[in-house]
# Entry
Amino acid sequence: MFNTDWKPNKSSPVPLHKQITDFMKEKIANGEWTIGYKLPPQRTWAKRLEVNRSTIVTAYDELIAEGLIEGKSGSGTRVINNTWNLLATTPPPDWNSYVKFGTHQPNLPTIQEINHAEFTPNIIRLGTGELSPNLIPSQFMKKIFQQLSNKEISYGYEEPKGLLPLREQIAIYLKSIGVHASPSSILIVSGALQALQLISVGLLHRGSTVLTEKPSYLHSLNVFQSAGMRLMGIPMDKEGIQTKLIPAYKKQQNAALLYTIPTFHNPTGTLMTFERRKQLLDTCQQEQLPLIEDDVYRELWLDENPPKPIKAFDKHGLVLYLGSLSKSLSPGLRIGWIVGPEPVVEHLADIKMQTDYGSSSLSQWAAAEWFSSGLYHEHLQEVRKQLKTRRDFTLNTLNKYFSDLAVWDKPTGGFYIWLRLLPSISMRKLFEMALTEGILLNPGNVYDHKAEQFLRISYAFASLTSIEDGLKRLSKIIKLIAK
# Structure
């Protein structure tokens, strides 16, 4: 994925094409652009650097003449030499081949584009799944760290399962939502994403199949696929994953486990009903199919408390339960937890120690303080109030500009509205045109390759003004493409 913050200095006496040539030579000489690296198309370069395409053509021609790059019709322009390689008899390693054959698969191209575009100044992020900076309690956070400064805390490594005072606080919190777990059956992780990574390398065989909802956030990641697993989606209805289909899918796919987000599902916003949760647990028990319950959105209910976690009814240690502070408090703390049978938790803790020697000690102390001080509960009440206002505003805005363009359901919590577009249009074209207009979208096909006519709209991140402006302009782009 091409990404650079550098731009030529248009007030410099050095010609623009020479500045660009020197910049590219430096990238090649420093080994940042290795042999085999594919250069961006000339139009992309010109647009990013805000120069005429002819300026880029001149710069490319100079590097081709020096034998550093080569352009081929149909396959683009690539680095074929570096300054050392021109002098040496033994060529340097082709790092591109190492990257290509590494174990961990890269993000989907659209996800890579989204990850880079998120840092473009003033872009309207209509799909971002995190709290707005305005909803992150910075004053409370300062208070927490001030309180910690007056306490005796350790700054070294913590024990493999994580800081004991934090695990004790999480055990108290879990009890309040119906999950009974001792601190010894809790593992602190750097967010729920690390939990999935540990499970994928620590509990599953290569070639295993993981069942999940269709669509699912899991399809936007390669965490299981990179460990040699396959994902298989099971259709949903308004109550959640269709449990009656699970036995057939398990048998056909020889599935190893099932992953679910039952509470304010990502990306659809669906809340699994109490009855469906019981059915899901009963079915998984009958099929001896372990269950990962990802419950990171639980505390973001807007209308009424959601049903208890599936883990609350688990009497056989079938469910691995994931929680996190990333969605409800701050993604920067990187604090989450896995709750499960002690032998499983101990095994995953051992792998985590091999990976990173434990999550940040300072973050763990801060998280423990959030829970023990009562500030987390106080913050949640405020964030729910703000998110409810944002959800209602976004629904009203959609009614205003999308009543004839899309259909959607009202979510009762979480961050997302799952928008199904009525005109049949190219999602790629919509994504690119919106990006040109300064609007960043999360297309449905990153969560399910067949969800071509869907968008994940988030009411959590962008300001209310930006949400209205972005949706208004997006409706015009859709109408333009649909003509």
